[in-house]
Write a structure and sequence with these properties.
Layout lengths: L35 E2 L2 E2 H5 L1 E4 H6 L21 H19 L3 E5 H4 L6 H22 L2 E6 L18 H20 L4 E4 L5 E2 L7 H22 L4 E4 L9 E2 L4 H10 L6 E6 H6 L4 H10 L3 E5 L18 H13 L8 E3 L11 H26 L4 H7 L6 H7 L5 H10 L10 H11 L2
Parallel strand pairs: 3-4, 3-12, 4-5, 5-6, 6-8, 8-10, 10-11, 11-12
Antiparallel strand pairs: 1-2, 7-9
The chain binds D-xylose and nickel (II) ion (2 copies).
Length: 441
């Protein structure tokens, strides 16, 4: 590419893998893309993706202060020129980092116009440009989505707005975002309903709003089939923020909603670490709930802060957490079309564009390391052996009889009367924690 050193001149080559003893901060210590882990490469298993909104559109602003980052790619005065510069910066970054995927919202990559039609035109223009850069570099879209939360019209909901004209607007916007994702060969399409919830029940008909959301998603499914988009649809749960209560609160409530409205066959879930903790769960709990339902489709890899109660979207660094996450992912045979998308942003004080590299390198290494450790734990049956054994009593005798469905409460009562009282085996939590820790070298 001609623009290779335009926006990140301080990183003048692709980030190399140098191994765990490297002292070079701009190198990978664990992520070695072509290394085989089992029968796949690290790159194939991890499928890292950069989040366009945080990394290229993030300004460092927060509730108490405005834009803080002075990005070269945001300097052009014309919005379309700015969008093109941003796209070039993005592709320079992807190539130098060595990732194959990115995720975007319609309004990240293209500016909103004065009218709906103008916004659609802007999107088409930028999509054409992105398409040419993708072709040139081989970089792909993990997922696209529509921003149904920033515009003032969505302040009382998009699909769940009390105003049908707003729901119509959201539907038309989603149609265009799906078109854009298809045009760019996106492998998934995400629905995250930041405004699909309520602020107060005093003005809200929850049943009606959820029916609207279901109708909305059904229309999206119909459209997907109509245009032959073969990407996977994903719902991204989050309990709150910006609304007080979001309908897709967590994995379990999203799954119930999908089932209730006959949508389960058409969706999987995109689980975000920080959303899990906001819902009062752990990241691994949400992964496990989704995976148990056969619905773990993709992951927004980030972390929250235990001292702060909001979606801080920090880069993942905790090896314990990435290890357990990768165990769940490996145990279900990988993420399929999904991947690990860094829905994460550098802190307001990390003002140098090079910090974007440090952040992603850290996240990628944390997951690569988690992957290696998880693979060893699984190969050694270090934990699974114990878990298997813990349920032994269901493999034969009364356990197998109960699970076969051939007996009811009366037959079981007879068995209990004739049997000895059960002596429980230890759950051995501390021993298992020690085993896990012994792998974290
Ligand atoms: C916000 C969400 C958002 C989605 C995409 O909290 O994580 O970034 O991933 O709309
Ligand atoms: Ni997210
Ligand atoms: Ni989030």
């Amino acid at each position: 590419m001609t623009t290779l050193n335009r926006f990140f001149p301080k990183v003048d080559r692709q980030i190399p893998y140098e191994g765990k003893d490297s002292k070079n901060p701009l190198s990978f210590r664990y992520y070695d893309k072509n290394r085989n882990v089992g029968n796949k490469t690290m790159g194939e298993l991890l499928r890292f993706s950069v989040a366009y909104w945080h990394t290229f559109m993030g300004t460092g602003s927060d509730m108490f202060g405005g834009p803080n980052f002075k990005r070269e790619w945001h300097k052009a005065s014309n919005p379309i020129d700015r969008a093109r510069d941003t796209m070039e910066a993005a592709f320079e970054f992807f190539q130098k980092l060595g990732v194959e995927y990115y995720c975007f919202h319609d309004r990240d990559i293209a500016p909103e116009g004065q009218t709906f039609v103008q916004s659609c035109r802007n999107l088409e223009t930028v999509v054409e440009f992105a398409k040419s850069l993708q072709k040139e570099t081989g970089i792909k879209v993990l997922w696209g989505t529509a921003n149904l939360f920033s515009s003032p019209i969505y302040s009382q909901g998009a699909a769940t707005s009390p105003d049908a004209r707003v729901m119509a607007h959201a539907a038309a916007q989603v149609k265009n975002a799906i078109d854009a994702t298809k045009e760019l060969g996106g492998e998934n399409y995400v629905f995250w309903g930041g405004r699909e919830g309520y602020e107060t029940l005093l003005n809200t008909d929850m049943k009606k709003e959820q029916e609207q959301m279901a109708r909305f998603l059904h229309m999206a499914v119909d459209y997907k089939h109509k245009i032959g988009f073969d990407g996977q649809f994903l719902i991204e749960p989050k309990p709150a923020e910006p609304t007080k209560h979001q309908y897709d609160f967590d994995a379990a409530s999203a799954l119930y909603f999908l089932k209730e409205h006959d949508l389960l066959d058409h969706f999987k879930l995109n689980i975000e670490a920080n959303h899990a903790t906001l819902a009062g769960h752990t990241f691994e709990h949400e992964l496990a709930v989704a995976s148990a339902a056969g619905k773990l489709g993709s992951v927004d890899a980030n972390r929250g802060d235990t001292m702060l109660g909001w979606d801080t979207d920090q880069f993942p660094v905790d090896i314990y957490s990435t290890t357990v996450a990768m165990m769940i992912i490996l145990n279900q045979g990988g993420l399929g079309k999904g991947g690990l998308n860094f829905d994460a942003k550098v802190r307001r004080s990390s003002t140098d564009p090079t910090d974007l590299f440090h952040a992603h390198i850290g996240g990628m290494d944390a997951f690569a390391r988690g992957l290696l450790i998880a693979r060893r734990i699984i190969d050694d049956s270090a934990l699974s052996g114990f878990i298997d054994k813990r349920y032994d009593s269901y493999r034969s005798g009364i356990g197998a009889t109960i699970m076969s469905g051939r007996v009811g409460l009366e037959e079981i009562e007879k068995w209990v009367i004739g049997a000895e009282s059960p002596v429980l085996q230890s759950g051995r939590q501390e021993m298992l924690e020690n085993i896990l820790n012994s792998y974290l070298t």
